[in-house]
Amino acid sequence: MLLFMKVLFTQFIAEMGDKTQFTAITFGANEGLSAAVVVWLASSLGLFAEDVIGLLIGYLLKSKAPEGILNTVAFFIFSILGILTLRQGFGLLLGAESSMILPLTVAVTVVFVIVCLVLYKACEPPGSLWIASPCVLRRQCGADGQRIGGSWH
């Protein structure tokens, strides 16, 4: 049940304001309230199909890839996308021609890298390439940074 709630709320928050929601809003506005159930069902089925494909690809990659590599690749992809989004956000806030966009983006990126390195070192498994989120660190590491509950896997 806990896994269900984690996935439900994570998916709900991630999809808020996403392009799929805007697509559903557009279809709903164009087709009217009488088509709301059809739009909702079609949107839900499309999201379901997308998730099934993602789950299958993730399972196949996990079975073929070395342990921890998918988390590491996902970390770098989301980090790069986050930095690009941050830069774009600074451009919107300060104006596209502002000379402060690059220094602010670099400063925030450096702070992000330092925080990631501190978290990584706080709970690093011996001899492996492993990157974890703070949630995983809280669950798997004690206050002294030592592994809780057995060996690394």
SSE diagram, text form:
Layout: H1 2-15, H2 19-31, H3 36-64, H4 69-94, H5 101-122, H6 134-140
Short description:
The protein is 73% helix and 0% strand. It is mainly α and 153 residues long.
Describe the protein.
The chain has helices at 2-15, 19-31, 36-64, 69-94, 101-122, 134-140. The protein is flat, with a radius of gyration of 20 Å. The longest helix has 29 residues, at 36-64. With 153 residues, the chain is an all-alpha fold. The chain starts with a helix and ends in a 13-residue tail after the last helix. The chain has six helices and no strands.
Indicate the percent of residues in helices.
over 70%
Outline the biggest β-sheet.
Answer: none
- In round numbers, the mean pLDDT is 79
**Strand percentage, roughly?**
under 5%
Question: Class by helix and strand content?
Answer: mainly alpha
Number of strands: 0
Name the helix and strand elements from N-terminus to C-terminus, one letter apiece: HHHHHH
**Oligomer kind:** single chain
